[in-house]
């Protein structure tokens, strides 16, 4: 059987997550500066333009009758708004939560386009985001409650003897939030993209293996399409879960249990 | 009371005589000609929409369609493929490993 020899290589399914230099600029200035545009930077810029562009173009110009685009954005806004109202109760955090949601959602969705780069599969983005948020939330808690913020680490009604142990446990669980928030997003997206890459490599081999195998492969291909749909759903769910948890962390910092 | 004083008092009530039919439309409205000329040249009909381009074509009102989203997806696919091709697909083209 004559195999298609030009495409026999198999790349690592993890190669898609590599951050590569697209454009570098080194200059012997200020010591030695290296200015690099990576695919991460490029796609971050693209995501920013997509979000701002869609919101600019999709807005309704204060007309009474909404267009379909403005209905879309208004429903997103209404959902995020109700979530912030229910969780935090103060709408001052709404702009932050809304932009965070759209950033994660659009970066996940852009990542679902074949050959593109998903920025949330970079640890520096997802963990960096969650760490930044948790540091900010801690500063917020300290700012509001001053020294009383540390009562957060002692559950109500704890016997004095147990306080050192419980403070340690609570502190660890508090710090673990910073990791778990980022890792949840990162791991879900990475797992999905790796799975799709592996399956599509298999499917490509099977589709190029003769007519009968081609027809038989249509069945797993349908399954593959379903998994792609699942990935789209994961993009939404992860963005939603991320902002939901950020809401509850902010609430914790404001209300201290 | 002096008559001039009465007139001055009434001057607040009686508006000054600026335009009378005779003054404005003397000899069948010649004085209004520049005005008529100006207004007759103004565009007629409802005011055109202030926004144009992509927003009017694909986003506003009944023109709202999914076309921009499809174009963004196609554009990003092309960009991604181009980068992928230039970064490594090119090297594997004739040298499988």
How many domains in all of chain A? 1
Give me the secondary-structure category of chain A. Answer: mainly alpha
Chain oligomer state: heterodimer
The end-to-end span of chain A amounts to 68 Å
| Count of β-strands of chain A | 2
Give the overall silhouette of chain B. rod-shaped
**SS field, number of helical segments of chain A:** 6
Q: Tell me what portion of residues of chain A adopts beta-strand conformation.
A: 5-15%
**Could you estimate the helical fraction of the residues of chain B in percent?**
55-70%
Sheet bearing the most strands of chain B, described?
none
What class do helices, strands and sheet pairing of chain B give? mainly alpha
Shape of chain A: globular
| Mean pLDDT metric of chain A | 89
List SSEs of chain B in N-to-C order.
Answer: HHHHHH
Which sequence of SSEs, written as H and E, runs from N to C of chain A?
A: EEHHHHHH
Helix content of chain A: 55-70%
Low-confidence regions of chain B: none
Q: How big a fraction of the residues of chain B is strand? A: under 5%
Radius of gyration of chain B: 36 Å
Gist of the model:
Chain A has 257 residues and is mainly alpha-helical.
Describe this structure in words.
The complex is a heterodimer of chains A (257) and B (97). By secondary structure, chain A is mainly alpha-helical. Chain A has one domain (33-252). Helices cover 67% and strands 5% of the residues of chain A. Chain A is built from six helices and two strands; from the N terminus they run ββαααααα. Chain A has helices spanning 39-58, 68-87, 94-111, 123-145, 163-207, 211-255, and strands at residues 21-27, 33-38. Chain A has a two-stranded antiparallel sheet. Chain A is globular. The N and C termini of chain A lie far apart (68 Å). The relative contact order of chain A is 0.13. Mean pLDDT of chain A is 89; it is low at 1-6. Chain B has a domain at 64-96. Chain B has helices spanning 3-11, 21-24, 26-29, 33-41, 53-59, 67-92. Chain B is rod-shaped and about 115 Å long. The termini of chain B are far apart. In chain B, 4% of the residues are buried.
């Amino acid at each position: 059987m004559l195999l298609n020899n030009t495409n026999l290589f198999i790349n690592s399914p993890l190669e898609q997550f590599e951050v590569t230099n697209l454009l570098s600029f080194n200059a012997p200035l200020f010591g030695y500066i290296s200015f690099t545009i990576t695919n991460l930077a490029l796609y971050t810029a693209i995501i920013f333009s997509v979000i701002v562009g869609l919101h600019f173009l999709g807005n309704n110009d204060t007309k009474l009758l909404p267009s379909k685009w403005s209905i879309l954005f208004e429903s997103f806004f209404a959902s995020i708004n109700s979530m912030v109202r229910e969780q935090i109760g103060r709408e001052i955090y709404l702009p932050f939560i809304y932009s965070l949601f759209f950033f994660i959602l659009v970066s996940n969705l852009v990542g679902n386009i074949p050959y593109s780069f998903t920025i949330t599969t970079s640890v520096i983005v997802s963990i960096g985001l969650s760490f930044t948020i948790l540091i900010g939330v801690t500063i917020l808690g300290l700012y509001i409650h001053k020294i009383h913020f540390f009562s957060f680490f002692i559950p109500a009604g704890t016997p004095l003897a147990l306080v050192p142990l419980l403070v340690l446990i609570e502190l660890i669980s508090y710090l673990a939030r910073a990791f778990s928030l980022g890792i949840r997003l990162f791991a879900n997206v990475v797992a999905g993209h790796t799975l799709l890459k592996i399956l599509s490599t298999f499917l490509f081999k099977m589709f190029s293996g003769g007519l009968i195998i081609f027809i038989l492969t249509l069945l797993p291909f349908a399954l593959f399409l379903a998994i792609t749909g699942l990935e789209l759903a994961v993009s939404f769910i992860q963005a939603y879960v991320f902002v939901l948890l950020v809401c509850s962390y902010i609430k914790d910092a404001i209300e201290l249990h | 009371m002096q008559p001039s004083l009465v007139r001055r008092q009434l001057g607040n009530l009686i508006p000054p005589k600026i335009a009378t039919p005779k003054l404005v439309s003397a000899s069948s409205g010649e004085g209004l000609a520049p005005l008529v000329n100006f207004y007759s040249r103004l565009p007629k009909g409802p005011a055109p929409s202030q926004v144009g381009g992509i927003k009017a074509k694909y986003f506003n009102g009944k023109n709202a369609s999914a076309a921009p989203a499809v174009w963004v997806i196609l554009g990003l696919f092309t960009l991604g493929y181009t980068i992928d091709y230039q970064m490594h697909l090119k090297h594997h083209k004739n040298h499988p490993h």
